Amino acid sequence: MGHQDETPHLFDQCKVCIVCSKDLSPDTAHQLASTLEENGGESVIYEPPADFPDLAQFSHIMSNTIDFPEFDAANDALIPVVKPHWMHASLSKTKLANPRQYSPDPRLFLNDVVVTCGDIPEGDKDAIIGGVLAKGGLYNSRVTQMCSHLVDLTVDSDKARLVRERNLQVKIVLPHWFDDCLKLGRRIDERPYMLPDPEILRAAPDLPIRSAENRDIVGASTPEPSTLPTPITSPVKGKLDVFHGRTVMLSPDLGIGSHLQKTISDLIREGGGEVTSDVSKATTLICRYREGFAYRVASRLNKDVGNLSWLYHLMTYNTWTSPYRRLLHYPVPRTPIPGFEGFKISLSNYVGEARSYLENLITATGAECTKTLRQQNTHLVTAHDSSEKCAAARDWGLHVVNHLWLEESYAKWKLLPVSDPRYTHFPRRTNLGEVVGQTRLDRSSLESLFFAAEDTPSAPAVPSKAMQNKDQNTAAGNALGMLDADDNLVSGTTNATPRVGKSRKMTDGKNLQTPARARLATDDKENDTPSTTSSRRSKDAAAARLHEIAPDIALYEKEKKRVGGVIYGGRRKTDEDRVTLNNKNKKRTSMEAQTESDEEDIAEVKRQKKSKPPITIHLLITGYQKWVGNMKKEDADKRQLRELGIMVVQDARKCSHLAAPSVLRTPKFVNALAYGPVIVQVEFITQCLKKNDLLDPNDFLLNDKDAEQRFGLTLEKSIINARKNKNKLLRGYHIYCVETIRGGFDAFKSIVDANGGECNMFRGRVSYQAKREESEDESEDEDHSNRKEVYLLSSVAAEHQKLWPRFRQLVHHMDKTPRIVRVDWLLDMAMSQEPRGAQAYELNEEMVQQSEE
């Protein structure tokens, strides 16, 4: 990576998936594909609603939107998603442009801005350029047709005159616009800041601020819509086809009548989809609450999970959007955000659909939304602070905040501090109603709070299997790092902290957990993390005890769900919906899927008790497509493999063999390499299952010369090196990583840990323990020059560059040499299992300036 510009064709090493959408027509896609191919690249055109091609084969995805089904999987697999302009910019520079500056992700909210600066102070200029680059925009030193904004203090400057003389479509704005955008983390309307007559400078303090209608939340202002939508079909696509190839499950917890359910089912079928009541067959689950067997399984398998409002939105616009995109398109929890109980929140200065949306959002947080403001209120959420209501709230000592506090607390499902300046910033002439509804749900928060593997103590085997499926849904095979049920029980006896979210209603020890481990350090029941002998015995005892009491746990969990709970009396034998175990004549309730699953869980626990053949292979699997979306087949196949002596594991530390479709540069694959496993093709799994026999893995060794050439390594040599290194490749290395690195800090920390190094997040300070070098005997034969250097993994993003001087200062103060490097330095070493000098990977300010020129 990093040397593509030296090859005869610019895109030689690129295979790009071009995603068609309403903003990128098939004709345009074919033109882009031709340009790519003329310059040595390969391309595949994806037209929804067809099945998305296998992600693993692509180096880039080209799209004008992030609203396509595989966006999250592409992010997990570290595959950059870029707008078409990335290709044109690369061609004009004759080298591959930085993909981050061409991302369609709306979180990079200045990604359509190309800014140039007029006669403004140098300090302001640097700050604006840095902010624009960090939020996805571009900077041009000259006024060109590409520029969208000129930052200036007057229309009399040379650049402003040039814009007017040439009649360029460039908005001339005051620096205050960028300042307010960056403070809020949202792009607001430029009009109050535009020269020659900016409203923010001429408007009287008491002049009313205009109301702001917001189209972004139309159809997303309530989680429980009351009427069926009227589809808005395009003239090109005459009929509804958004459900083509999708299988939808309507959860019983929606509480809709049979007539409405039939109507919805007919619409889905007319749109090319199928309807099922089996979550394992579904690609999409529609449910009301973030709970239940179907919700957890579908979420762990990375299926689309949304509510009725989201389903209606798809029907209305006939275009797929992510259920994470709008907060109220995703199922709601039954319980409040911890800390929101007792809050009384009033709204001010929001109008129309934005007001309805925020009222429903307040209710969904568990707080009370009051129509009028009284002294009993705790918060006032307002679109601007120029009103009598705001003045009264401040006089009464209430918290006055904008809607971002509410949205982001809901997205992360935690009470965020009202003292954060972003939540108390109100631009002078802006009604913040215009940016309502732009906050997305936080996927990692949802996973850890609502469908992590340890959520279901009644089923120790099934949740971990379900979590393993998620790995198969990304070609890169990122590990999940979830504690299994055994870990969850043991954690109750150690330094545990109460779990928040859904499980906070339970108070017994087994629902406590220790702080989450690194995302890529996964565990399997037969593969514990390194621990003392006594803690291992405790874990084994807990696992054995769990198997013994599993039927009782299942019974308790079911009884607890009924009205009255477990405490207030039992049920008579004559009660129709009385819970019994192993009763073949028991009547089904409306929650049939839930009941079936619980019985399967108990049967699975019993099966675990039976004696099994000895394990000869601990197999880590990534990218096995035959299990994607089919949990039952995966469970059956894993049981069959176990009967052959193959134990499927999720922890790279415990694997003796790794199965993959190709050489992948992902955290899971890279971590496994450090342990020198035998690496086989995934065909090994298929053939073992087909022949029901333990075949010789050496007949299925992975051979991927193209990838080896691309990554500059030989797989066989890497494995030999790994076995020699014994996880000490990075022993003595002190590596720091910026917090917002692409791919996530946890991913890179796990790679460093797997290779014996020390990795910490850099937040403006460096902690260095020299005693480690002196106390470890193995360090005697280390290369001492390495230990005199301290490394920082970074990118050239402006927010990262700001940290460089501080890092150098702190490292020099420790009498060490600072090295600021691209992540490729770490990945190339970990993949080849050979030390690499940092010089070829180093980053500095001069290099960044040259690349911008």
Describe this structure in words.
Pfam families: PTCB-BRCT, RTT107_BRCT_5. This is BRCT domain-containing protein. This protein is an alpha/beta fold and 853 residues long. It has 7 domains: 99 residues, BRCT domain (Rossmann fold), CATH 3.40.50; 89 residues, BRCT domain (Rossmann fold, 3-Layer(aba) Sandwich); 83 residues, BRCT domain (Rossmann fold); 99 residues, Rossmann fold, CATH 3.40.50; 150 residues, no CATH class; 106 residues, BRCT domain (Rossmann fold, 3-Layer(aba) Sandwich); 126 residues, BRCT domain (Rossmann fold), CATH 3.40.50.10190. The chain is 35% helix and 11% strand. It is built from 30 helices and 26 strands. A 4-stranded parallel sheet has the order 2-1-3-4. It has a 4-stranded parallel sheet with strand order 6-5-7-8. Strands 10-9-11-12 form a 4-stranded parallel sheet, with helices on both faces. The longest helix has 29 residues. The two termini are 21 Å apart. The N terminus is likely disordered.
- Major sheet attributes: 4 strands, parallel
* Strand arrangement in the largest pleated sheet: 2-1-3-4
Q: What is the structural class?
A: alpha/beta
Task: Name the beta content range.
Answer: 5-15%
Secondary structure: helix percent: 25-40%
Silhouette: globular
Uncertain runs = 1-7, 233-237, 455-539, 563-609, 770-786
Q: How much is the radius of gyration in Å?
A: 29 Å
Mean pLDDT: 78
Q: Give the N-terminus to C-terminus distance in angstroms.
A: 21 Å
The tally of beta strands, per DSSP, is: 26
What's the helix count?
Answer: 30
- Please indicate the count of domains: 7
